[in-house]
């Protein structure tokens, strides 16, 4: 593998650093070192190399008084960092050689690292890709988030049902971050607002301290590095009641402290519905307040006032979770710095931007006025005033949009009014944000909504995840595609070259073997490597329609049973993903998939032609192995419901063909790779709306489809749940009678598209050509492109490189 190498780092010097850290950081003798000890030594050695570019970048930003981006996000789904950092520093091969000379294997050591799962899904992983890209393109930036003690729950299956177990990534410390005990802010909650000399003052009832932990984020090539600053709740010492403790009441003595700590204890496990509302709102304010205080403090180091804040600060709100940033900034400007309310509002708006990630009504945050008053009384007053202003602006409208409707505070509307740019995450989604979600806002501010289609970092999702393919690309078109992904176009010239197509096929096989071995070791699951690998991996949600996929799998199984010698293409259907713990329907679908798998995988007649594999605990690490090994990418959401998708991009970049609807970024992926290289099916967004308004649409669709009737009958009869025949009665009943997600309406067309997949795969050369054209045309979906668009269209920040 060719890569950048820092001239000053040789294998010998890396080796001696490793040994030094093994001795002084891990406190071990090489003879008695465990894999864990080696990981500590390796990560500290790498981290040392990150410090120079980190300091250099930070110093330059200060010296040149550059505008900085602050990316506020409740989620950063980072995964492992060892190999990622090694690659970006150009030290991957040197580290491997140095370890090898000590009898230690790089991959074994790197895989000992726990996944930092500080996110639920798409929005959190996007934040991680953007952090890496901001560093790569030289955009001065800070990521701000929470240092959850427990990340997203670990999923296991018991009798095919999802179990949630606590995740413990910090159990043995985090070698990447530096504690900053001097960077501590008090965050207030509750209390009262009173007037003093004509000025309103908030006297919070309690304070919790936020302490910073910083990690360097190094861009590819090591030319620039930014900071990820995560806040941990550290209760004041006086919260621990020593008197009570001494009198023997240990639990009560620790209670206030435990309550304060809960602010950064767990990542909210649920990405679509809310519960535990007070804690969630408090967590959001905790992140936002600490970050905004930090931003204001940093600005005032170099400037006398906050008047010019917008020239130096761009704050991006990743969804509505940090939407309290608007009122918080206004509060600081008005209450603490004497700004006039209107001027404070205008200034805040110039500073803030808001990215919307979903149209699902249940995922749009709303807090009751009562809760808001309890937790953030001063902010509620500010929101009320903003609401008044907003209504005045809409004078003459019969149905003005409101920030507060009834007893609900609408965080989406709040985020919109306090931002100068609001963006959707794919062209289609942005159009729907404009027309469905915020039409009243859009009429008032027609320039405010912009589209920035999501992207993914090719460093992690190609170079790291798919070394064989990355090597083939480098061999074919040379280096440089890692930071200029449009260069993949040069592969098109090789798309008709049988030798190249064959080399591509070899990389796919290598990825399958790698994944297969990993599945065996980690989960004791078997993955045949001679089959079409057909994958749907993402959060479990009705709109994503894993149900459509498993129902089709049943049809496919029934057909194979009816005619086993019809020349079927051997297939492995892979499912992976977690359901929100309280999302019962999604959990039933998990159980259905596992039940069908139990029958299908144990049928000796079909085993060699069809397998279902559902490894538990989908996470970033699994994605890195699974995606390169896949041939077919299932992106089959009901049109109009998936904001963008980013998994769809990862698959296509790794040469999987997409079977998908015209939803989210699928639309743009298809435009880029070409309609001939994409298996399209399904109703469009407009047709979905129309179909939904027809009474009895699902019954009509089922009655028209013999295949669907056979499947539903098999499920209803308990073919896959003989121990409990009516287990899936509810799912079947929904299909007949409600079917909001139009599984029935799209079934036959999906079936047709699957037959096309089958046919295309039989022609190996044709398939490989299509796959190569997918790779060659995916350059647009690099997160470097997305970040550059944010820099010009939203943040007004220039690259420092
Ligand atoms: C996700 C969207 O569902 C997905 O389509 C999109 O690609 C991703 O954000 C990044 O923009 N939304 C969430 C969420 O993760 O929690 O709403």
From TrEMBL:
Its EC number is 2.4.1.1. CDD domains: GT35_Glycogen_Phosphorylase (cd04300). PROSITE patterns: PHOSPHORYLASE (PS00102). Signal peptide: none annotated. Gene3D superfamilies: Glycogen Phosphorylase B. It comes from the Bacteria. Belongs to the glycogen phosphorylase family. This is Alpha-1,4 glucan phosphorylase.
């Amino acid at each position: 593998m060719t890569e950048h190498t820092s001239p000053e780092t040789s294998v010998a010097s890396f080796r001696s650093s490793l040994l030094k850290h093994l001795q002084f950081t891990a406190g071990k003798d090489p003879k008695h070192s465990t894999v864990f000890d080696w990981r500590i030594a390796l990560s500290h050695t790498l981290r040392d190399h990150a410090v120079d570019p980190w300091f250099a970048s930070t110093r330059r930003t200060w010296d040149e008084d550059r505008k900085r981006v602050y990316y506020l996000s409740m989620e950063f789904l980072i995964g492992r960092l060892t190999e990622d950092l090694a690659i970006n520093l150009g030290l991957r091969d040197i580290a491997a050689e140095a370890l090898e000379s000590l009898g230690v294997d790089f991959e074994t050591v790197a895989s000992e690292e726990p996944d930092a799962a500080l996110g639920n899904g798409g929005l959190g992983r996007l934040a991680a890709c953007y952090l890496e890209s901001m560093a790569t393109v030289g955009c001065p930036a800070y990521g701000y988030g929470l240092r959850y003690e427990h990340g997203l729950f670990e999923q296991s299956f018991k009798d095919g049902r999802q179990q949630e177990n606590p995740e413990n990534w910090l159990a043995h410390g985090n070698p990447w971050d530096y504690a900053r005990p001097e960077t501590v802010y008090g965050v207030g909650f509750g209390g009262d607002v009173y007037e003093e000399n004509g000025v309103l003052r908030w006297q919070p009832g309690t304070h919790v301290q936020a302490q910073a932990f910083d990690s360097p984020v190094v861009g590819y090539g090591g030319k620039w590095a930014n900071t990820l600053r995560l806040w941990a709740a550290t209760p004041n010492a006086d919260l621990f009641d020593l008197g009570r403790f001494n009198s023997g009441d240990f639990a009560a003595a620790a209670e206030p402290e435990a309550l304060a700590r809960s602010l950064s204890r767990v990542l909210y496990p649920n990405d679509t519905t809310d519960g535990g509302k007070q804690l969630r709102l408090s967590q959001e304010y905790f992140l936002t307040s600490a970050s905004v205080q930090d931003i204001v403090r940093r600005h005032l180091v170099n400037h006398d006032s906050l008047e010019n804040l917008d020239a130096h600060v761009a704050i991006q709100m990743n969804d509505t979770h940090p939407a309290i940033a608007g009122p918080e900034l206004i509060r600081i400007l008005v209450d603490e710095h004497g700004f006039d309310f209107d001027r404070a509002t205008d200034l805040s708006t110039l500073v803030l931007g808001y990215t919307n990630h979903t149209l699902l009504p249940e995922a749009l945050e709303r807090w009751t006025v009562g809760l808001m008053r309890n937790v953030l009384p001063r902010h509620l007053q500010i929101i009320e005033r903003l609401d008044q202003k907003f209504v005045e602006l809409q004078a003459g409208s019969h149905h003005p949009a409101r920030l507060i409707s009834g007893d609900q505070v609408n965080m989406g509307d709040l985020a919109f009014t306090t931002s100068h740019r609001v963006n959707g995450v794919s062209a289609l989604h942005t159009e729907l944000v404009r027309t469905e979600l915020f039409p009243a806002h859009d009429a008032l501010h027609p320039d405010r909504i912009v589209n920035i289609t999501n992207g993914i970092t090719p460093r992690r999702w190609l170079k790291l995840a798919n070394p064989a393919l990355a090597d083939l690309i480098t061999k074919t078109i040379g280096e440089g595609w890692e930071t200029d992904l449009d260069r993949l176009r040069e592969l098109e010239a090789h798309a008709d070259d049988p030798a190249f197509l064959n080399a591509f096929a070899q990389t796919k096989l290598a990825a399958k073997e790698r994944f297969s071995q990993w599945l065996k070791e980690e989960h004791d699951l078997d993955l045949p490597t001679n089959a079409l690998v057909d994958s749907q991996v993402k959060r479990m949600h009705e709109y994503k329609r894993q149900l459509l996929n498993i129902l089709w799998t049943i049809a496919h199984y029934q057909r194979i049973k009816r005619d086993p010698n019809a020349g079927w293409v051997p297939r492995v259907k892979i499912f992976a993903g977690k359901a929100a713990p309280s999302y019962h329907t999604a959990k039933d679908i998990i159980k259905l998939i596992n039940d069908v798998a139990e029958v299908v995988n144990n049928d000796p007649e079909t085993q060699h032609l069809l397998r279902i594999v559902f490894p538990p605990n989908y996470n970033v690490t699994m994605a890195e192995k699974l995606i390169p090994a896949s041939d077919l990418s299932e992106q089959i959401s009901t049109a109009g419901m998936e904001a963008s998708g980013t998994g769809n991009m990862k698959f296509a970049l790794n040469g999987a063909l997409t079977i998908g609807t015209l939803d989210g970024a699928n639309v743009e992926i298809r435009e880029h790779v070409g309609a001939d290289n994409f298996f399209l099916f399904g109703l469009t967004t407009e047709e979905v709306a129309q179909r939904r308004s027809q009474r009895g649409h699902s019954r009509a669709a089922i009655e028209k489809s013999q295949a669907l009737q056979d499947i539903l009958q098999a499920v209803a009869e308990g073919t896959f749940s003989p121990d409990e025949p009516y287990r899936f009665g509810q799912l079947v009943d929904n299909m007949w009678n409600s079917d909001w997600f139009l599984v029935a309406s799209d079934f036959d067309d999906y079936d047709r598209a699957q037959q096309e997949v089958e046919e295309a795969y039989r022609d190996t050369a044709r398939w490989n050509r299509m796959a190569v054209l997918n790779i060659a045309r995916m350059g647009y979906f690099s997160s470097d492109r997305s970040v550059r668009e944010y820099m010009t269209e939203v943040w007004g920040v220039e690259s420092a490189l």
